[in-house]
Amino acid sequence: MQTQINGFELMELGFPQGSVIGIALKINRGRHGLNRVQMMASYAAVLAQPENYIEDNIFSKLAVAIIEKANEKPEDFIALNPTPPAFSAYGLEHIEEGARDQMRVAMQLPVTVAGALMPDAHQGYGLPIGGVLATKNAIIPYGVGVDIGCRMALSIYDIPEAFYNEHHDKFKRELVAHTKFGAGHGFQGQYKSEHSVLESADFQINALTKSLKDKAWSQLGSSGGGNHFVEFGIISFEKEDTVLNIPKGNYVALLTHSGSRGFGATVAGHYTKLAKDVCKLPEIARNLAYLDLNTSLGQEYWIAMNLAGDYASACHEVIHTKMQKALGATVLAKVENHHNFAWKEIWNGEEVIVHRKGATPAGKGVMGIIPGSMTAPGFLVRGKGEENAINSASHGAGRQMSRTKAIKSISKNEMQSILNHHGVTLIGAGLDEAPMAYKDIHQVMAAQEDLVDVVAKFTPKMVRMADDGSRED
């Protein structure tokens, strides 16, 4: 059986981030007859004395890469800033050290202007998830993230809470009928949807985007894998909201979370590789390779990123339109916000590129949705425009367990018990998305009271997620 080892475990052994870890993980996938303990011991031995493994049948390539990496000279790379500005952080006591370390590295980039860490932050690749980074005329593909333009969309219906309770089976039927999940999955033939985004001239910017248009069309209106969901719930307004024109009360609402599917993932991978080729940063910062927006390559990525964001929005629009028609409902208000994106904004009097990797825009008066988990409430919020947070807030509760740890430590019975306790109907989803794998959303919200005002609370009632173990794509 293949031994599962991830990059974070190798970093804990002392492996540098980047290509060396990639080589090590490729060896691990080769099924060499070593169990997990033996493989980790071998990795440690190769790292300690790579010269002893230069001619080894299994570890020779890794040994050579480690030696070459050790002999790289600082002058071969773009210098990092030895005295970087400090970054703001919210709920820092609940943020793992790995995410803090990644933020410290990001602040050392020569293009960095300011940074902030949101209370749901946890370790990712390059910029931590929950990291906000403002740069000067430069864009970082891994600062945006793999699932470009991933977003939340909320439709509030003119349907009272009692109607949901009386017609539970109808909501379940429509949820299954009008959503599709799983990495690589999409629609074919007459089931494909139309949307004006497919007519965008930006698909023609280069061979890559042209080649992805057919896949984008087939996946339009689908939700992918990982923590993406479509769910019905009850949204509660404790008082009238005059801006949205919603009276006090409880309403049925549809909440969706997904991004730009295979289109965005392919764009992210392509331009991350190109950025690493042209922006030679030290290994510790390699995943933060950036593109100058004054270059053709930087402009290409900027256009492709914005197209991916528009496409992600179109996917949500298709889902929400289908559901509205199926329910015969009137939408009282719709709110949408995205993360995993970069914006041109004015910060401290100058134009900057603000990367929000797993962070919600929260400028003054800007609406957003911050979900909890499948059993914890989410919150409809209005931004306060806090400059120290670079006009941002968290994008959710944030993980407190890795997917691997969640699968190993949470049983199906435990997960079902908490679902039953909260009266939540779940369609799909694996143990990696169990509610216990996430931080306490109330703790996260308490840490960002200076960043957002709560407008309403959303309580999940029926959740659909991918059930094939796939991650966001």
Entry summary:
The protein is an alpha+beta fold. 34% of the residues lie in helices and 23% in strands.
Please provide a written account of the structure.
This protein is an alpha+beta fold and about 475 residues long. Helices cover about 35% and strands about 25% of the residues. It is built from 14 helices and 17 strands.
Radius of gyration over C-alpha positions, nearest whole angstrom: 23 Å
How many E strands? 17
Overall geometric form? globular
Structural class: alpha+beta
Which descriptors would you attach to this protein?
single chain, about 475 residues, alpha+beta, eight-stranded mixed β-sheet, 14 helices, globular
Write the layout of secondary structure elements.
Elements: H1 7-13, H2 19-28, H3 36-48, H4 60-70, E1 88-89, H5 97-107, E2 112-122, E3 129-135, E4 138-139, H6 141-144, E5 151-160, H7 161-166, H8 168-177, H9 207-219, E6 229-237, E7 249-258, H10 261-278, E8 291-292, H11 296-327, E9 331-338, E10 341-347, E11 350-357, E12 359-361, E13 367-370, E14 378-383, E15 392-394, H12 403-409, H13 412-422, E16 425-427, H14 441-446, E17 452-465
Parallel strand pairs: 1-2, 16-17
Antiparallel strand pairs: 2-3, 3-11, 4-8, 5-7, 5-9, 6-7, 6-17, 10-11, 12-15, 13-14, 14-17
Helix pairs in contact: 2-4, 9-10, 10-11
